[in-house]
Write a structure and sequence with these properties.
Layout: E1 3-4, H1 10-19, H2 24-36, H3 50-59, E2 60-61, E3 67-72, E4 78-83, E5 89-96, E6 101-104, E7 108-110, H4 119-123, E8 125-128, H5 131-144, E9 158-161, H6 171-182, E10 194-198, H7 202-211, E11 215-219, H8 225-231, H9 240-253, E12 259-265, H10 273-282, E13 288-294, H11 308-320, E14 325-327, H12 342-356, H13 367-373
Parallel strand pairs: 1-2, 6-9, 9-10, 10-11, 11-12, 12-13, 13-14
Antiparallel strand pairs: 3-4, 4-5, 5-6, 7-8
This protein binds S-adenosyl-L-homocysteine and iron/sulfur cluster.
């Protein structure tokens, strides 16, 4: 079976090359071809010795997940659906803005953490993505956006691990992908422009601080353990006091001097004035910013989006309390690419698309997913 070179960061590729009797600079050369130029044909890697090219062609491949669909929204948001095998599909969303282009990348097919308001969580867990499947989303998007080869015209300037799945529950495959995002021989992004979003897996936050400290976003969503236990069930394992302490520890290593707290605004659930005031108290020792996310509905979610005026009022309390607070614009609505809409509808779509591509019809084995889709 051939080795997929997208599974290796620089260290891994150097070690694999060494096993083949090849020098480290050869690994760097090939890394640049793959990730900077978007090349998957070894024969085209013209400055690599012909004998090595021939050897690679027999032993290895550059195999990103195949694109199932690529859709452009009216507001410029572009959504890719990638086939990760066994009837699973994951999504990647490109969000262009004036001063940057952000790629929202998935880390798992499904998610095991079952946050109450998240359609990915409702569909259940399928499996971890491999390093190749994580970095392959960036590789493919770069290619589709025509931004390979010239770093000065980088179209994707930021990457956020905010697609499907909990990145820190897939730590071992995530870290080499992060290394590649940062590597000057690959994507060369600064640590501040790569953000991991987590629901708060405390031990993995500490490991990330050691292994690859990038910007961190923490999905908070509630000011008290009572409410967070219900909305974000992992809170029962790592309650708020532990989470806040982990945030403080992370900041010692972090490339930015604040944590971003994400807070989905659920009408009548977590959006009262008292909740905002309780948040101010909760985060009093953690330098942070808040990003309020208007809830994106999906079928049978059981939640409603907070009215805009409520969100404004909630934000004002946080701002008056001295915390920089932004409210996320909902983008990509028309192509179901908004936060948290990814999975539920995707399941429907991927079934349609997948069917037409000749695969079997069911995209997950999750009973919850099946229920939602009907
Ligand atoms: N598992 C990680 C990253 C993926 S989710 C995490 O939970 O942080 C990315 C963000 O979208 C999280 O803050 C998540 O809580 C939020 N989100 C999930 N479902 C949502 C929905 N229906 N509407 C708005 N935001 C949602
Ligand atoms: Fe998983 Fe994040 Fe969704 Fe929670 S919000 S179920 S952790 S993807």
């Amino acid at each position: 079976m051939s080795v997929n070179l997208l599974d290796f960061d620089a260290e891994g590729l150097t070690a694999w090359f060494a096993q083949q009797g090849e020098k480290p600079f050869r690994a760097r050369q090939v890394l640049r071809w793959i990730h900077q130029r978007g090349e998957c044909d070894f024969n085209a890697m013209t400055d690599v010795a012909k004998s090595l090219r021939e050897k690679l062609a027999t032993m290895a491949a550059v195999s990103p997940p195949p694109t199932i669909s690529d859709r452009l929204s009216d507001d410029g948001t572009r959504k890719f659906l990638f086939d990760v095998g066994n009837r699973n599909a994951v999504e990647t969303v490109f969000i262009p803005e004036d001063d940057r282009g952000t790629l929202c990348v998935s880390s798992q097919a499904g998610c095991a953490l079952e946050c109450a308001f998240c359609s990915t969580g409702r569909q259940g867990f399928n499996r971890n993505l491999s390093t190749a499947e994580i970095i392959g989303q960036l590789w493919q998007a770069n290619r589709a956006l025509g931004s390979h080869s010239d770093a000065s015209e980088r179209i994707i300037s930021n990457v956020v691990l905010m697609g499907m799945g909990e990145p820190l529950a897939n730590f071992d495959n995530l870290v080499p992908a992060l290394h590649l995002m940062l590597d000057d021989n690959a994507y060369g992004l600064s640590r501040r422009r790569v953000t991991v979003s987590t629901s708060g897996i405390v031990p993995a936050m500490d490991r990330l601080a050691e292994a690859c400290p990038v910007a961190l976003a923490v999905s908070l969503h509630a000011p008290t353990d009572g409410l967070r236990d219900k909305l974000v069930p992992i809170n029962r394992k790592y309650p708020l006091a532990e989470l806040m302490a982990a945030c403080s520890r992370y900041l010692v290593h972090a490339p930015r001097d604040f944590i971003t707290f994400e807070y989905v605004m659920l009408d009548g659930v977590n959006d009262r004035d008292a909740d905002a005031r309780a948040l101010l108290h909760l985060v009093r020792d953690v330098p942070c910013k808040f990003n309020l996310i208007p809830f994106n509905p999906f079928p049978a979610s059981g939640f409603r989006r907070s009215p805009a005026e409520r969100v404004r009022r909630f934000a004002a309390i946080l701002i008056n309390g001295g915390i920089v607070t932004t409210t996320r614009k909902t983008r990509g609505d028309d192509i179901d690419a908004a936060c948290g809409q990814l999975a539920g509808k995707v399941q429907d779509k991927s079934r349609r698309v997948v069917r037409s591509a000749g695969f079997a019809t069911e995209s997950t084995g999750s009973p919850a997913g099946v229920e939602l889709r009907s």
